[in-house]
Amino acid sequence: MEKFPVAVVMECRRLNNPWVDEAWEAVGVVPAFDLADPAPVEIVSEPDRRQWRIGGWAIELFRDEADNYFLNMSSPIPKVFVMWRKEGELALPAAVSASYGEAARWLDSGEQVDGVPMSREIADWVGDFVNTHYKPAPRKKVRRNDPLAQDRGRA
């Protein structure tokens, strides 16, 4: 298991909607090696948009998820997945991952999950892990429909 410390940037946008006042979304995951205080810090305050940086998180990589990291890294835009929950006035991260499979499991269980583009530093780190631990599944021989083979089997 390997860890990469990160902070999550959560954004709240005001909506002009009679049923919903605001929409929350994870909009960034940034390296946080030197972040001393993990408490939420407001970093953007505009009339229709506010953002908070929330530290204290780490992306952890596990060998048994190497296939899912490979799928993520081979996509056009690799992502970090953030599971979050609304707690009081803020939406706070509950977990972060670079695994497609883990994000899918969170979504299947009804959690809020956003995928944010992976920074170059995180992508390099995950890429090194994939290069070291990913082993493609052995290819299986596929039997094609061979009409002669079917006739031989009946005789």
From TrEMBL:
UniProt xrefs under InterPro entries: DUF3305 (IPR021736)
Compositionally biased spans, kind Basic and acidic residues: 144-155
Cross-referenced Pfam families: DUF3305
Location of the region described as Disordered in the Swiss-Prot/TrEMBL record: 136-155
Annotated protein name in UniProt: DUF3305 domain-containing protein
Source organism: Thauera propionica
